[in-house]
Amino acid sequence: MRAKGRGRPVTDTPAGSAEYHWPHRHLLGLEDLSAQDIRFLLTTALGFDGVSTRSVKKVPALRGRVVVNLFFEDSTRTRASFNLAASRLSADVLEMAGKGSSVSKGETLIDTARNIEAMGVDVIVCRHHHSGAAAHLARSVDCSVINAGDGQHEHPTQGLLDILTIAKRTGRTESFDFTGLTVAIVGDITHSRVARSNVYGLLKLGAHVILVGPPTLLPAAFADMGCELSNSLDEVLPRVDVVNMLRIQFERLTSQAFPSVREYSTRFGLNAQRLSRAKPDLLVMHPGPMNRGVEIDSAVADGPNSAILQQVANGLSVRMAALFLVSGVMGDGG
Amino acid sequence: MRVLADGDRFESLIESLCVGISRAIAGGGQGRGAGGQNPSINGAGDGWALVGVRSRGDVLAQRIADRLSAERFEGRIGTLDITLYRDDLSEIGPQPVVRTTEIDFPIDGLNVVLIDDVLMTGRSVRAALQSLMDLGRPRRVWLGVLVDRGGRELPVAPDFVGLDLTDGADAELAPGAKVQVMLTPTDEKDAVVVFDEGEGKGAARD
Lengths: 334, 206
Description:
The complex is a heterodimer. Chain A is of the alpha/beta class. Chain A has helices spanning 35-49, 77-88, 109-117, 133-140, 156-169, 193-204, 221-225, 233-236, 261-268, 272-275, 298-301, 308-328; strands spanning 66-71, 92-97, 123-128, 144-150, 182-186, 208-212, 228-230, 242-245, 283-285. Chain A has a 5-stranded parallel sheet. Chain A has a 4-stranded parallel sheet with strand order 2-1-3-4, with helices on both faces. In chain B, the strands form 2 sheets. Chain B has a 5-stranded parallel sheet. In chain B, strands 1-8-7 form a 3-stranded antiparallel sheet. By secondary structure, chain B is α/β, with parallel strands linked by helices. In chain B, helix 1 (7-26) packs across helix 2. Chain B has a domain at 7-25 and 46-168: Rossmann fold, CATH 3.40.50. The A-B interface holds A 1-6, 9-10, 12-14, 20-22, 40, 43-44, 46-51, 54-56, 58-61, 89, 321, 324, 328, 331 and B 54-55, 58-59, 62, 65-66, 68-69, 74-79, 81, 83-85, 89-90, 94-102, 104, 130-131, 134-136, 185-186.
């Protein structure tokens, strides 16, 4: 009688150092996290995986804490994911919408947040259409702030769940070392907070990142950070291990920068024909919601290379880990 | 740091723990505190399992399991991580590390022997029990510990004990002293050691 998975050594701190302590009271972006922070958070997320698959999908870790979802932009899955993650940790969840609330009556973001905080809130999960909104909020309130997407800046939990998905599918969950892995991010890089968070995280873990898109939507500044830039998906596809297809955000696009939908789809859409020229075990990801037939074809999205639904499942574990960790440093103000 | 047991003495502690558990499984005896009215674990051919509490109880459970299987007592073995069930998350010093619970069998109706290294306040056991109940409904749960150090804050009593420090026979323990179990391969050697108050950083875990 020997248990499965008993072979690996038992260590007290997966992050590698016996003295490691999660140092962040807020989660605003992957730019602020060290590689060790990212590895620790993702290892913690692995510990939460089991909670979602057993019969009682709840642990008492954040019992008595209050989490507020403060969303000034439309969101379905991120909002639901944070709500469910907080619920599974036994926290109480308050849903606040920017639209149709006091914000649309002229109240500022900070006034709204301070009023919410006065109700005795522990964590504010904030999505806002302005870059830097979450950081601004974090400076103005005493509770923890988790950025659920701020304008074109960052979407840290999406970046983390993408990285967790890659690590699981490529067997790198022991080390979270992405050395030797090539990841392409395809689409409107200029306007994408998902791309930014992915770039920061992937580079810190040692991956080679290629950003692919039309020249008008591909800022040259990313090359300085260490990314490779390309305007040709066909050239890049055969040499990548992972491709992350960004959603074309029609609501964010101005007319000049974007080619026609048909042109974009022809040059940058991932279809079965293109997939056949890629590595057979290419990992295909998409942050959702998908524009089927534009950036990704149904045959690819629903095919064996796709990790899209795994991404959603991993998002829950990542958000539980984020809520758990930022709550843990609340007491000492770190 | 004082060594309370190592080498042969340590082996005999594990042995006595195994004897108690295997007797109970076979129906030949009862664990301490179990009382005479309770049926043995293997009564009516029920399944049983060892569940070790991280981060030493799992190693200890594997050690016990290896011994029991040599005596042809076949059962399941699992690992419980109780970090998310602790009531002292804000009080413990080092970063709480969440790890996986690995119980890949249904525990409904099973006789479970919960295994931990040191029993002191009973809070870890309370957390482990709550965690177990969230995984299913075991038929009954026994508690086996390598060291009962005393100092209970909750009404928890072990069924199987290797080294009992509550009767004063082995050593007098100051209230602030920390008892620590070291187990290979996690640690360099097998030993039960005691750190007196304020001594040694390595004694911070419960």
